[in-house]
Amino acid sequence: xxxxxxxLALMLSSWVAILSQSCNxxxxxxxxxxxxxxSFKGFTGWPKQGSFNGPDPLLGAMAHANNDASVVRSVxxxxxxxxxNGKFPVGTLIxxxxxxxxGTVNEFTGMVKRGNNFDPTHNxxxxxxxxxxxxxxxxxxxxxxRGSGLxxxxxxxxxxxxxxxxxIFSK
Length: 171
Hints:
The protein is of the alpha+beta class. It is built from 2 helices and 6 strands, in the order αββββββα. The chain folds into 2 domains: 1-30; 32-165, no CATH class. Helices cover 19% and strands 20% of the residues. A 6-stranded antiparallel beta sheet has the order 1-2-3-4-5-6, with no helix packed on it. The longest helix has 27 residues, at 2-28.
């Protein structure tokens, strides 16, 4: 009887160990991350990758008020996320705040690595226009300002210049 009980206990503990390992794999590697109005909240408390002043020749004059020499672009990465094997993992969140001393520029933009073949040609990044509190902006017609083709594709076309760095210029 003791051998049977011991054998059953060993089988049960093995089964529990196998089940917990398979659950952890699914939990640790999300297939898709869909940002909502809470995703970018509190971004100013995230680690700041850096602040970049004035025009950046890599950005082009159109993006992030890059044609204004007084603009400061501060870039925040949630949890200080770095690349893993050369790419950012699904769920990576980035916010850029562009501003200048006169207050004529005050722009908040975001990116999320969405995954699940959202835009496989461009490594599944989704782009956002944000409000100052990190909410996803809507236009006057109520259209949510997000997507891979945001701003007529301007986001993805510019970030394509950093495709060898997984579409991120600042890190």
